[in-house]
TrEMBL record:
CDD domains: HTH_LacI, PBP1_LacI_sugar_binding-like. This is Transcriptional regulator, LacI family. Keywords: DNA-binding, Transcription, Transcription regulation. Coiled coil: none annotated. InterPro entries: HTH_LacI, LacI/GalR-like_sensor, Lambda_DNA-bd_dom_sf, Peripla_BP_I. Residues 6-60 form the HTH lacI-type domain. It comes from the Bacteria. The keyword DNA-binding applies. SMART domains: HTH_LACI. Pfam families: LacI, Peripla_BP_3. GO terms for molecular function: DNA-binding transcription factor activity; transcription cis-regulatory region binding.
């Protein structure tokens, strides 16, 4: 019967070899000299060592570290992603290395360099070129987070198109609004691109003509203030501002209220993500709830499994469900989820 108390490190010490050598012998992988192999086998036999699942997993990983590649770190969205990723990495005894690509001309090269120091990487969609993504996948397990996968590279995300289509239909059908504007920059962001597509699709399915262009801004709260200023300065307010995320929506809310407009009486504002502040502002923000922490946690699980089983087939991509949450910023009198989308 195996001794569950003795560890791989103790076997390595008793045999006078490295932990990696014990792992190679116990798993039957890699090159080990006959003399070292026999020393390890003797120590295993003498002390009844039996490697557990975690021990095998740790031995399979070379660095005990996972990588996260983001465009930047500002705002609650990235904080939630990091917490979700760490919720899986820390129990697996893996540290987390974070690389931000914003304004870095050498971002592709830096990501490839990171692959030398980690056992797998989660890459935010749109942060590196497709060519680099595929090169990266030849070096370590890779998962695309909140973006489309490529070939053998799986992804973890939500159905942004269907979710935004549902929110937009709510405004067009349930509230009878017609003059809607979309705030966000589709170029360079798979999430925003899909949300813009859903916004357009909802109009077209109802036989309505959508705006020809979005109001292009970045994804932070000050950008929402700027968007509101742009939209409200020289024209009558649109009926609704549909924002690509909650941070922009919160900024737009500040900008609208600062100009003396009432939300939702004079102007409807909606977001996407259901960040913690969305329910706390006045009026509370109608938005789409996506499981941000679970997105990153699922990505970490896929990477850990792949790192612990080299050569296994690439896993399938994962689409997590979303939920439309209607609150008073769209004109609804109650605040409640109205159903989910996704798989």
């Amino acid at each position: 019967m195996g001794n569950s108390r003795i560890t791989v490190r103790e076997i390595a010490r008793l045999a006078g070899v490295s932990v990696a050598t014990v792992s190679r012998v116990s798993n039957g992988t890699g090159q080990v000299s006959a003399d070292l192999r026999q020393r390890v086998l003797d120590a295993i036999e003498l002390h009844g060592y039996r490697p557990d699942h975690l021990g095998r997993a740790l031995a399979a990983r070379r660095h005990g570290a996972l990588g996260l590649v983001f465009p930047g770190l500002s705002g609650p969205y990235f904080s939630e992603l990091i917490q979700g990723f760490e919720s899986e990495a820390v129990p697996a005894r893996a540290s987390v290395h974070i690389l931000c690509t914003h304004l870095r001309e050498d971002s592709d090269a830096q990501v490839l360099e990171m692959a030398r120091r980690v056992d797998g990487i989660a890459v935010m969609g749109g942060t590196i070129s497709e060519e680099t993504l595929l090169r990266l996948a030849d070096l370590v397990p890779v998962v695309v987070l909140a973006g489309p996968g490529r070939d053998s590279v799986p992804s973890v995300g939500v159905d942004n198109t269907t979710a935004m289509e549902r929110l937009t239909r709510h405004l067009l059908v349930e509230h009878g609004l017609r003059d809607l504007v979309f705030v966000g920059t589709p170029e360079g962001s798979p999430d925003v691109s899909q949300r813009w597509s859903g916004f357009l699709a909802a109009h077209r399915e109802l036989g309505l003509t959508p705006p020809t262009e979005p109001v292009r801004v970045s994804m932070q709260q000050p950008d929402g203030v700027l968007a509101a200023d742009q939209l409200l300065r020289d024209r009558r307010p649109p009926e609704a501002i549909v924002c690509a995320n909650d941070e922009v929506a919160l900024g737009a809310l500040v900008g609208a209220l600062g100009r003396g407009l009432r939300v939702p009486q004079d102007l409807v504002i909606t977001g996407f993500d259901d960040a913690p502040m969305a329910a706390l502002v006045s009026p509370p923000l109608t938005t789409v709830r996506q499981p941000v922490r679970e997105l990153a946690a699922e990505a970490a699980r896929l990477i850990l499994r792949a790192a612990d089983a080299p050569g296994a087939p690439a896993p399938d991509s994962i689409v997590l469900p979303t939920e439309l949450v209607v609150r008073r910023s769209c004109g609804c009198s109650t605040s409640t989820p109205t159903g989910g989308t996704g798989k």
